[in-house]
Specification:
43% helix; S-adenosylmethionine-dependent methyltransferase activity; Methyltransf_11; alpha/beta; eight-stranded mixed β-sheet; Class I SAM-dependent methyltransferase
Amino acid sequence: MKNEYGQRIKQHVQEQFGKHADKYVTSSSHAKGDDLALIHSWLQPQSDWIVLDIATGGGHVAKQLSPHVQHVIATDLTPPMLGAAAGHLKKAQCGNVTFVVADAEQLPFLDDSFDAVTCRIAAHHFPHPDKFLQEAARVLKPGRKFIFIDNIAPEDEVLGHFMNAFETMRDTSHVRCLSVNEWTSLAMEAGLQVEQSVTSRKQHHFPVWVRRTAENEEQIKNVEQFIAEADPTFHQYFSVLIEDGGVQSLQIDEWRALMSKPASYTSSI
């Protein structure tokens, strides 16, 4: 049953992202952001490195690292998304990036293959986040670094449920945002050590954010109504701004973590 659930989710992710691939190339929240510079600062990439970018989306992390390493392998579950990323990076003259269709929970690479692994703003679409972290750890060379960035749910269960509810309404391929405590626990189980991390707040312009994944105006209206009519406690936590009779913006937490694979790593799989 677990495998069937995962396959259904992944098929829907492919359908959803296939339809909206170009939006993730041009999306300002994906194409820009100080987290891209942080990736470079934390990794300190070397010219002889081979790097893996899991669920590359629009290819923005691959683009950031390409000039500083020997080669980047950019993977994604959705072929049209990889096609959009490839077109984007070709224009940016990133000639050392290879694109591979791959499942983040079952990577087609040997153990200890990469000098660094990254995954940015994608893991909330993975049905089995534990398997994803195990795979990231498996393919990473001992002693090397893994950078993980994703939207996170508040530790408060009620707030977290509300967040995942409106995210699912907005994007039907959304699975679940985990909390920092949940991610930290899964990382430890996968044999990864969290060396440093930071939680930040990301503001989204609601009309743009909701239309990136919504299929029709009714869906947009339902998401807006759900947020607008929520208890003031939710509005306060997510900094919901309502003006001119509509939701204008909100803020979501994001976790950025630098993890390492110990030299004495033992697979948890």
